[in-house]
Amino acid sequence: MRFLVEPSPAGGWLVKLAGHDAPVSRHDTEEEARGRAEAYRRGASAEGERGMLRDGSVVLIRPIAPEDKPLFVAGWEHFGEASRLRRFMGVKQHLTLENLAFFTDIDQTDHAALVGIDPDTGDGLGVARCIRDPAHPDTAEAAVSVIDSWQGRGLGRALLERLTDRACQNGIKRFTAELRADNRAMLRLFEHLGRTDVRRDAGDLELDVDLRTDAPEELASVLRGAAAGDVAPR
After folding, report:
1. CA distance 26 to 36
2. How confident is the prediction for the chain on average, in pLDDT?
């Protein structure tokens, strides 16, 4: 990855990923921006756990870090309009600096997220995340997103398996999720995580999923058999 550092029209300095108009981050000084650009370059080479998908493809899966903002900027262009609509439950043309910070500046406990990476190119392929509900500490909202060209290959399943394991280790016993009513593939996958309560809200679906924390091996087996395709939910 190659990065550019340039003045911001609103003041301060921007770090941009070469070939992309959207900034990765904004900083008060040029020195700070150049230091952050170097951190992004180092972060792009971070290793992860190697996993093989059902089609034989190999991916790296690791926890998301603040240095992964460029992966989101580059990956956004590989989501089609339908995927963006499913992911954000509405139209969203670009990721803001606030979006990037929210997605990557996380503690991996109350807000946990994993990224799947192509080991040959270093490109980000998909993300699974869950965010704990402060009012109900054993509950977290979960979401999975996979770029269009990697949907249907088992990446969403692999990410969700590992996210579920991490969530259970963090004391999460229940996932909630919001899906568009036509997102049937992901609905089936969530239903196989455990007992699922499905409610309709203005044409969309709201899910409560009780995780099978007492039978991790059975859960992993069910997930492997359940994921017939990957479609990106909210």
Report:
1. 10
2. 85
CA angle (30, 35, 36) in 5-degree steps: 100
- What CA–CA distances, in Å, run from 93 to 51, 96, 111? 32, 10, 24
- Among 29-33, 47-51, 174-178, the least confident range: 47-51
Instruction: Single out the residue of 127, 206, 126 nearest to residue 174, CA to CA.
Output: 206
Give the integer Cα–Cα distance in Å for 104 and 113.
8
* pTM exceeds 0.90: no
Nearest-angstrom CA–CA distance, 133 and 112: 12
Residue-wise pLDDT tens digits, 125-178:
999 999 999 999 999 999 998 988 898 888 988 998 899 999 999 999 999 999
Query: How far apart are alpha carbons 118 and 145 in whole angstroms?
Result: 15
DSSP reduced 3-state for 63: strand
Looking only at the bridges linking them, the beta strands covering 136-146 and 174-180 are parallel
Q: Which one, of 89, 159, 172, lies nearest residue 124 by Cα?
A: 159
Burial label, 227 (beta-carbon count in 10 A; 0-12, 13-18, 19+): buried
Instruction: Give the burial class of 52: count Cβ atoms within 10 A of its Cβ; 0-12 exposed, 13-18 middle, 19 or more buried.
Output: exposed
Which of these, 97, 95, 148, lies nearest to 125 by C-alpha position? Answer: 148
For residue 170, the one-letter residue type is: N
SS3 147: coil
Domain 50-64+106-226 in CATH 3.90.980.10? The answer is no
Q: Domain ranges in the chain? A: 50-64+106-226
